[in-house]
Design a protein that fits this description.
alpha+beta; 2 domains; 7-stranded mixed sheet; binds iron/sulfur cluster
Length: 360
């Protein structure tokens, strides 16, 4: 099979891709939807999260907040609770904040103009292009991880996909290929191709609808692309957490709104210093974060969890409250919560892992 030049055969490439998409796309709850709010929710959830995981969360979210008005009117705690387990909680906080802006400053209408939409909280170049092209057929090329991989292989690009300095290169190629008559379908088709055919490992090139145009397919160099910048090993942090009992209640603290896992509730916790034992560190961390006196410290279990840039190993203890008013250093709120009500709070995944391993 002779390779066709992509720049000269752009129309044919678009036809092949869109025909394949029409026939082979997966049935997903947000497909075929025109409501910009629903498209926006799905795109935010899909960032850094696999489709299979998003489906249930998406359905639960739109059932609870079916439109931008209801999302804006809801307390942030309710939004975080529905988002709980999906990770990257800044996405939920930003979506909520943006919904409030739409209601209070934009007459309740999700903006069609790129610059206005792009300014909303949490909206980046990718989400702006994806939402505006899918909802309003605006000619913006979306570039996410899947699309970068496809472009890297189609054009045999040397630019590393995980380097910010490559963004321009991928955007230029995506802009060049975009079907300006059907930008929403085109963007979705490119994402679908990356997710189902041009996968990171072992792309199924023989059934790929655009193999005729693909540089690496013709050179059999699929496994060498995309190029990646080598990254440092992921560090592991040793931590402790304490379940402090006060009769039938336990102490929960709330994380600051603007950081990692912002706004979620958890047991008092912190990082161990070098050479510090878990037990000794637990006393110190209770003292530093909530400043209450405790007794009967007992080891419960060990929980491991991985974030994008580091891993944590948490030794969890239980103990009894003895005395003292809670004085916070770090957390923004604290509550003595009945053990039966803990699961009603939005909790990080690591806390859920602990509760699964060692129920209260
Ligand atoms: Fe990806 Fe293979 Fe298709 Fe090229 S031919 S775009 S490497 S699946």
């Amino acid at each position: 099979m002779n390779k066709k030049n992509l720049s000269e055969s752009k129309d044919e490439f678009q036809e092949s891709l869109l025909k394949w998409f029409e026939e082979h796309q997966r049935k997903l709850p947000w497909r075929g939807v025109q409501d910009p709010y629903l498209i926006w929710v799905s795109e935010v959830m899909l960032q850094q999260t696999q489709v299979i995981k998003v489906i249930d969360y998406y359905q639960k979210f739109i059932e609870r907040f079916p439109n931008v008005q209801q999302l804006a009117a809801a307390p942030l705690q309710d939004v975080l609770k529905v988002w709980e387990g999906l990770g990257y909680y800044a996405r939920a906080r930003n979506l909520h904040k943006a919904a409030v802006t739409v209601i209070t400053e934009l007459d309740g209408e999700i903006p069609k103009e790129y610059d206005t939409f792009r300014k909303l909280s949490g909206v980046g170049d990718y989400s702006a292009a994806a939402v505006l092209s899918i909802a309003f057929d605006q000619p913006y090329a979306a570039v996410d991880g899947n699309i970068k991989r496809v472009l890297s292989r189609l054009y045999q690009l040397e630019a590393p996909v995980n380097d910010a300095s490559s963004t321009k290169v991928f955007q230029q190629h995506a802009d060049e290929l975009l079907d300006r008559q059907r930008p929403g379908l085109f963007n979705q088709a490119m994402m679908e191709l990356g997710a189902t055919i041009c996968r990171p490992q072992s792309p199924t090139c023989l059934v790929c609808p655009v193999k005729t145009y693909c540089e690496v397919f013709h050179k059999s160099s699929q496994s060498e692309y995309p190029k990646r910048r080598t990254t440092k090993a992921i560090p592991e942090h040793q931590m402790v957490a304490a379940v402090i009992y006060r009769e039938s209640k336990v102490l929960l603290i709330q994380r600051p709104l603007d950081g990692l896992l912002g706004g979620l509730w958890e047991f008092p916790n912190g990082r161990l210093t070098e050479d510090e034992t878990s037990e000794k560190g637990c006393f110190r961390i209770i003292n530093e974060t909530v400043n209450v006196s405790i007794s009967n410290l007992q080891y419960l279990t060990r929980v491991k969890h991985a974030f994008t840039h580091y891993k944590i190993v948490v030794d969890v203890f239980q103990c009894d409250y003895v005395s003292g008013e809670v004085v916070l250093d770090g957390p923004i709120d604290a509550k003595w919560v009945d053990v039966t009500e803990v699961s009603g709070y939005p909790l990080p995944r690591a806390t859920h892992k602990f509760l699964e391993q060692s129920p209260l």
